[in-house]
Design goal:
The chain folds into two domains: 1-32; 47-254, Rossmann fold, CATH 3.40.50.300. 57% of the residues lie in helices and 12% in strands. It has helices at 2-11, 14-28, 33-42, 59-70, 77-87, 90-100, 107-118, 121-126, 137-145, 160-168, 192-197, 206-226, 240-254; strands at residues 48-52, 73-76, 128-131, 152-157, 170-172, 179-181, 231-235. Strands 2-3-1-4-7 form a five-stranded parallel beta sheet, with helices on both faces. GO terms for molecular function: AMP kinase activity; ATP binding. Its EC number is 2.7.4.3.
Length: 257
């Protein structure tokens, strides 16, 4: 009997549902908590999703699929950072000073940018998909301290050898920006001019990829421990179609209904 109850709680994400309700109450401090809870449950609870994976795991493609299916707001920490710098905000200027000096942007700055975006009306209405953040356990703890907790943490798994094959064989056409892959999407051999001008981006060099993988493996362990109860692992080496099916199924499984 106890096993059946445990299965029920897990299948219906009851712990996450109660946690979400409590966090909303503490954030809004309603005069009538019971009415607030009733009204809250009258409308769908927007999804809260984090996606992670090594470089070259196809996160961008899967983010598009999640947005199309569930209508959430895609929040990329890299895009946020570039937007703040371009807009010349105070946070952007501070971040730019670190970038120009070759230093990593401090956690507090990036976390602040992400938190402000998560407080936007469109995000509150439609839910969110965090991509590229948090990158370490410390950032995850900072988000949780602010009441920001995902319903699901999707982890794309790809072997290092596959990552290297995917990335170091990429070539870019500087004239058009088109990207080719020497094994899977090679440039047309009859176009000699195109083949001659293709370049390998600095980020795609083997030494750079290995360095990024080292950092990734050092940090993902802490994130898996932190988000253990909501982690959904998806094989990122399968076909794009099968990866997409796995990712969408993981989000659906963890939705609070």
């Amino acid at each position: 009997m106890l096993d059946n109850k445990q299965e029920y709680l897990q299948e219906h994400n009851i712990a996450q549902l109660m946690d979400s309700i409590l966090r909303n109450i503490l954030q809004d401090l309603p005069e009538s908590p019971t009415k607030y809870i009733h009204d809250l449950l009258e409308r769908p609870i927007p999804p809260q999703i984090i996606i992670a994976g090594p470089p070259g795991s196809g996160k961008g493609t899967q983010c598009q699929a999640i947005v199309e299916r569930f209508g959430v707001v895609h929040i990329s920490s890299g895009d946020l950072l570039r937007a703040e710098v371009a807009a010349g905000t105070e946070a952007g200027k501070m971040a730019e000073s670190f970038i120009h000096s070759g230093q990593l942007v401090p956690n507090r700055l990036v976390t602040g940018m992400v938190r402000r975006r998560l407080e936007s009306d469109d995000v509150k209405e439609h839910g969110w998909l965090l991509d590229g953040f948090p990158r370490c356990k410390e950032q995850a703890e900072a988000l949780e301290a602010a009441g920001i907790v995902p319903h699901v943490f999707i982890l794309l798994t790809v072997d290092d050898a596959v990552v290297l094959e995917r990335i170091e064989n990429r070539r870019t056409d500087p004239a058009t920006g088109n990207v080719y892959h020497l094994l899977y999407n090679p440039p047309p051999p009859e176009d000699a001019a195109l083949c001659d001008r293709l370049i390998q981006r600095d980020d795609d060099h083997r030494s750079t990829v290995l360095s990024r993988l080292k950092v990734y493996h050092e940090t993902i362990r802490g994130l898996k421990e932190h988000y253990g109860t909501v982690v959904e692992t998806v094989d990122g080496e399968a076909s794009i179609k099968h990866v997409m099916e796995g990712v969408l199924a993981a989000v659906e499984k963890r939705r609070l209904k």
